[in-house]
């Protein structure tokens, strides 16, 4: 759901598949992993580049709303923890970019597509983090929702993607726990602090639900992606699981979920809840969220401001290599 | 647009006594920076005691499409596995 709207290509009924495509599908059905140099349908490759790329971009852009609070964390310990968390997000982005590159796309190409707006990142990072309680809410809800989606993706059919997800999942529960820890502190604090925690939950609840992508009935590309096992659960399944997990956690904090229709449904063994406002979701994805411009602007600025440094390191590496070569020649 | 840093494959020895194992790849201008970056990207939680970095283009890989003929010879030699031989129970553990 860090990849919310991934267009799947090349959906085909079995009778129209080539023998190669049938053999490929059978490998996936047997649970075999597909590795970089092996034959794969062009649609599989393209869809994966889109999905892994979107996922990587989300990790990188996701550093911005939290990085915003590193210098203003309330204690030195909180600051060190947040710094470590944001550093993890950078690492997650790098694992995923590497996985995408095994499909034949270059890192520069992926970054260019992010910076020009041709590739998306998760809608959630286009909402502002206004105060410290928001950092708690982001860890608890946003990383909580991310884990929901990433745990099943550890079993995805593409080897490098699956291995990246395994590494990411190992690190992700630290993120959610640090967020919940902030929320516990705030919710058990002064009435003002508790009100801040409630306000953060109010603002992040529906954007967090949107992270799973549109409702299944509007999710036209799911079927092919599920056949290829690059998507394991439907959007609605994961959203339901997230709500069921989060409601008791909010209750423990003494906070209320901002949904008047929230009700336990004995029959399905889960909570009934209100859908987010999907017109807002599509507006944010299209670039009209509260922080789209700021996020992409900061991202492009960091890339451009760092150009002299990247070039400098490369120039140093090339000179050092030339000196070594000259020394070798002289020695011979 | 500046030129992209070369790609490196990263191998990490998790504990003393184990082999280095491939963990992923990253971009870096040279080997020294690749090791520094690998430290930050792949060992943030004490995952290693040693790092190898290898330029990705220095690796030669077997071809997936020749998997059959390449590995077939050993398939036919089941006697290489100790379980091929029946040792009477009274002989004891062997």
Automatic annotation (TrEMBL), chain A:
Domain of life: Bacteria
GO biological process: phenylacetate catabolic process
GO CC entries: cytosol
GO molecular function, one term: phenylacetyl-CoA 1,2-epoxidase activity
Signal peptide feature range: none
Listed Pfam families: PaaA_PaaC
Protein name: 1,2-phenylacetyl-CoA epoxidase subunit A
UniProtKB/TrEMBL annotation, chain B:
Pfam families recorded: PaaB
InterPro entries, A to Z: PaaB, PaaB_sf
The protein, known as: 1,2-phenylacetyl-CoA epoxidase subunit B
Species, as recorded: Paenirhodobacter hankyongi
Lineage, opening ranks: Bacteria, Pseudomonadati, Pseudomonadota, Alphaproteobacteria, Rhodobacterales
């Amino acid at each position: 759901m860090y990849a919310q709207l991934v267009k799947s290509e090349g959906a085909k009924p079995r009778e129209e598949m080539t023998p190669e495509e049938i053999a490929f599908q059978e490998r996936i059905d047997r649970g075999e992993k597909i590795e970089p140099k092996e034959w794969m349908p062009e649609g599989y490759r393209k869809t994966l580049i889109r999905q892994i790329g979107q996922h990587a971009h989300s990790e990188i852009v996701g550093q911005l709303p939290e990085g915003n609070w590193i210098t203003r964390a309330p204690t030195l310990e909180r600051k060190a923890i947040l710094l470590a968390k944001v550093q993890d997000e950078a690492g997650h982005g790098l694992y995923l970019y590497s996985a995408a590159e095994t499909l034949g796309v270059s890192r520069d190409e992926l970054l260019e597509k992010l910076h020009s707006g041709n590739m998306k990142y998760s809608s959630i990072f286009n909402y502002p983090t206004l105060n410290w309680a928001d950092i708690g809410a982001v860890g608890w809800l946003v990383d909580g929702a991310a884990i929901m989606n990433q745990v099943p993706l550890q079993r995805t059919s593409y080897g490098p993607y699956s291995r990246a997800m395994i590494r990411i999942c190992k690190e992700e529960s630290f993120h959610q726990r640090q967020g919940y820890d902030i929320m516990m502190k705030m919710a058990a604090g002064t009435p003002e602090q508790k009100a801040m925690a409630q306000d953060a939950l109010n603002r992040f609840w529906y954007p967090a639900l949107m992270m799973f992508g549109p409702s299944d009935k509007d999710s036209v590309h799911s079927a092919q992606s599920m056949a290829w096992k690059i998507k394991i659960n439907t959007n609605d399944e994961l959203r339901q699981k997230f709500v069921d997990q989060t409601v008791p956690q909010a209750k423990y904090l003494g906070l209320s979920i901002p949904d008047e229709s929230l009700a336990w449904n004995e029959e399905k063994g889960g909570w009934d809840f209100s859908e987010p406002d999907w017109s807002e979701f599509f507006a944010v994805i299209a670039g009209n969220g509260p922080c789209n411009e700021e996020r992409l602007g900061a991202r492009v600025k960091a890339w451009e401001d760092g150009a002299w440094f990247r070039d400098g390191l490369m120039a140093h590496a090339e000179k050092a290599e030339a000196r070594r070569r000259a020394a070798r020649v002289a020695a011979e | 647009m500046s030129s992209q840093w070369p790609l490196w494959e990263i191998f990490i020895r998790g504990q003393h006594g184990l082999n280095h194992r491939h963990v992923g790849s990253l971009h870096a201008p040279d080997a020294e920076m690749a090791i520094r970056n690998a430290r930050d990207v792949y060992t943030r939680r004490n995952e290693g005691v040693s790092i190898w970095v290898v330029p990705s283009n220095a690796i030669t890989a077997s071809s997936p499409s020749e998997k059959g003929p390449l590995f077939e010879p050993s398939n036919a030699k089941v006697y290489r596995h100790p379980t091929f031989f029946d040792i009477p129970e009274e002989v004891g553990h062997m």
